[in-house]
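Page 47, continued from p. 46.
Same chain as before, 388 aa.
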Amino acid sequence: MRNYFEFSNPAKINCGEDAAHTLGYELACYGAKRPFVICSIDVVRSGITTRALGSLDGGKKGSAVCFDGVPNKIDVEIIREMKKKFEKEGCDAIVAIGGVPVIESAKVLRTFLAQKCEDLLAIAGTNKTLESRVPMVFLPTEPTRGAELNGLIEEGEEFISSTDMIPNVLIIDREISDKKPLRALAEGAVYALGNALEAYMGAEEDDPSEIYAEKAIKLLFKHAVKASGRAGNREAATGIALASSLSGVAYGNVPFGAAHALCEAIRDVAGVSDEEAMALSLLACMKNASEEAKSKVEALLDKLSIAKEEETSSENDENAAKTAMEKLAEWMMLLCENAGVVCNISQTNIPRECFGNIAEAAQNKRAAVTSKGSITKEQFLTILNEAY
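Result:
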C-alpha cells in the first residue's frame, strides 16, 4: 500500500425502482423546504420533473422553485440569473434533474452561492473549499460521463476540483434510466468504460479507486450490450447509470490519462461530442498503453471472465487463444454496432490531415499533463493512426 493517498466519495447513492420518490425524504433530512430545481424544458415536458417533485410535501405545488432554461453548456450569465432567483425566492437546496449541462450548472451555482461571487474564473484552480454550502441532490436523466460524482467543473482549459462539487445525494431511478435512447446508452457505456479503465490503470495498489473502477467495469460488461440492443430493459439501463457514477468517482480520485486527453482533443478539433470522441479513441489508447498497464487490465478482464457468456464448446477453443484485450475490442465493437455508434475514425469525416493538430492539442491537455509519465505528440499520432 502507498505511504499516502486521498480518496473521497461523500455522496449517498439511492438506486433502483422508484428511487425518485426518495427526493422529498432526502431533502427533509437536511431541513430543506424550498428547493431550487434546475432542469431543461425537455425534461419538464417528459414528465420526469413532475414525477420526482411529487415526493415534496405530498406533491403540494409551490414547494419548489423551478428553473428550466438551462442551455447545452455552462453559461455563466444564466447561472447568475439562477443565483438571483435562488436568493429572491428564499430557496434552501439545489436539485438538478437532467444531463451534464444541468448537473454542471448546479455545481457552479452552488459554488457561487457559497463563495458569494459570480465569476467562475476567479475561483478556478484546484481543491477550492467552500465556506458554506446548501444541500444538493442530482437526478441524472441521461448518461453524464461520471460528471455527477467526479467533483470537477470545467470551463475551457480552466477547472475547479473539489469534493464540494459532489452532491449530498445521487438518485438513479430505474424507470428514468430506461427512458434514455439506445445510442445514448451505448455512448454513455463507452465513456464510463474509458473512465473506469483509466482509473484502474492509474490507481496505485490497494487504492479504493480500484474497487470502484472494477465494479463499474463489471456492471458495464454485464449490462451494456443488453441495454443498447433493446429498449425496455430497465435493469440493464440502471446498471449503466450506476456504472457511470462509480466510474466518475474512481476517475475523480486518480491521475488522468491518454484516452481522456485524446478524447478532449478530438472533440475540440473535429467538433464531435465527448462520447463520440471516446468511442473513437479508447481502444487505440488501450492497445498503446504501457505493458504494465495492459497487464493489469488483462488480469482484471480475465478475473471478470469477460466475453465468456453463452459460448459453445467450439467458441471456447477459439476464445482461449484470444487475449483479454482482443475480447475487450470485440465487446466494444458489438456494443457500438448495436446502437450505430462509430468506433473507427475512418468511418467519420475526420481527415488524417487533422491528426497533427489533434495530437498537438492532446499533448497539451490537462489529462496528458497529469497522467503517469509524459505523453508526446508522436505517441498521440501513433494512437490516432491505430484508431483510423
